[in-house]
Specification:
- This protein has 94 residues and is mainly α.
- The protein has one domain.
- It is 62% helix and 0% strand.
């Protein structure tokens, strides 16, 4: 599970919003939850790792910035999701 407090702080930084500006916090928190759900439904169980945190942040920011635009997810983000999914399904060494 992603640290949502850290995720909110990082999303605000990516969107160039001040940490003290709480006017969109509930909306951004909902976007973070939606981003976690998005990657979960693609077979990724998020952990407390920095990599998973940044994946959720990147998906949340993409969702926020593209909410009124037509178009597909950027290739770099699709690749991050695919690479993380491959780690999930790859058999682990004993």
């Amino acid at each position: 599970m992603t640290d949502r407090t850290a995720a909110l702080s990082l999303v605000k930084q990516r969107l160039n919003r001040l940490e003290g500006d709480t006017s969109l916090d509930s909306y951004l928190e909902a976007r973070i939850e939606a981003a976690e759900d998005y990657v979960f439904k693609r077979g990724i169980w998020t952990t407390a790792s920095t990599r998973d945190l940044m994946l959720v942040v990147d998906v949340a920011v993409w969702m926020y910035q593209s909410r009124d635009q037509a178009g597909d997810m950027p290739l770099w983000l699709k690749k991050m999701i695919r690479d993380r999914w491959l780690e999930e399904v790859r058999p682990r060494d004993p």
